[in-house]
Amino acid sequence: MKKFFAIILAALLLLTFASCKKIEEEGETNENVLENESEIYEDADSGDVFTYAVNEIGTYEILDFTSKNNEPHKVEIPDEIDNIEVSGIAADAFKVKNYISEVVIPESVVYIGDYAFYGCNYLTKVVMADSVKEIGIGAFDSCIALASVNISANIKVVSEFAFRNCTALASLTIPASVEEIQAGAFRDCETLKELTIPETVKVIGDCAFYGCTALEKATLPAEIESCGRFVFTASKEGFKIVGEAGSWAETYATENGHVFEAVVVETVETTAETTGETTA
Question: What are phi and psi of 11, to 5 degrees?
């Protein structure tokens, strides 16, 4: 009987070892496949090196970036590699790369991943094509030298912390395509002086512009569907909200202790050709 149990135990041990060996080999195979999925593209003129791979839509996305030029310089993301479009910039792809002073995002790119350019301390300018439809969470967070950015005219949502702590960003244009500004999107942009939120925006998240201590004037839409808490720094001296009298903008200013300035809504007079009467 003891001999029988010993044989059974030995067989079980062999099966366990074989199973573990198979899992280990599969793990090694998968790792090799992942390593082989990414490739390198080098711009011979600039010395910039882009790591890329096929994304979910069958085109390429940039995964990582290095450069033989260690001085801050202009980086132009390729619009295609080997005749295949570069449609995306992956999460963290350019994170904390301190040799970028300007980045040009081409017409082929449709998305920018989370924290893609986080902490690029020498990045001063972003040229973004209107093809971009998605800017990820914290995409340009803590780019402390960023002074100029044109947000794509096809962006509907400015994600959480997308431009947080961009302390050199003194001016900003939010395109009329934007419908939602999420929490902390422009928080702590300390040099931002003036702001116009277009009428298309219906949702503003918590602390969206909190800590923008140089902000003197914010023009707000007449109607908002949802507005978070502490959108602007409370009771900042000299700060005023501008909007239509009797609108949501005035209500928001009053409820949050901000100075409100009503804009004059102009009416266009038209002349009836047939009657000669003037109508407003």
Answer: -65, -40
Per the structure block, which two tokens stand in for 93?
């792809």
| pTM of the full structure | 0.81
SS3 category, 39: strand
Q: What is the pLDDT tens value at each position of the chain, 280 positions in all? A: 545 444 444 454 444 444 444 434 434 333 333 344 899 999 999 999 999 999 999 999 999 999 999 999 999 999 999 999 999 999 999 999 999 999 999 999 999 999 999 999 999 999 999 999 999 999 999 999 999 999 999 999 999 999 999 999 999 999 999 999 999 999 999 999 999 999 999 999 999 999 999 999 999 999 999 999 999 986 567 899 999 999 999 999 999 889 999 987 665 555 555 445 554 4
Residues 6+ apart with CB under 8 A from 194: 171, 215, 216, 217, 218
| Candidate CATH numbers 3.30.390.10, 3.80.10.10, 3.30.565.10, 3.40.50.1820; the one for domain 37-242 | 3.80.10.10
* Phi and psi angles of residue 14, each rounded to the nearest 5 degrees, phi first: -65, -40
Residue 225: what residue type? Answer: E
In the numeric block, which tokens belong to residue 251?
A: 């209500």
179 touches 202 (CB < 8 A): yes
Length of the chain in terms of residues written = 280
Kindly tell me the burial class for residue 207, based on how many C-beta atoms sit within 10 Å of its own C-beta (0-12, 13-18, 19 or more). buried
**C-alpha closest to that of 186 among 160, 217, 157, 148:** 160
Domain boundaries, the chain: 37-242
Contacts of 234-239 with CB under 8 Å at 24 or more apart are: 239/215
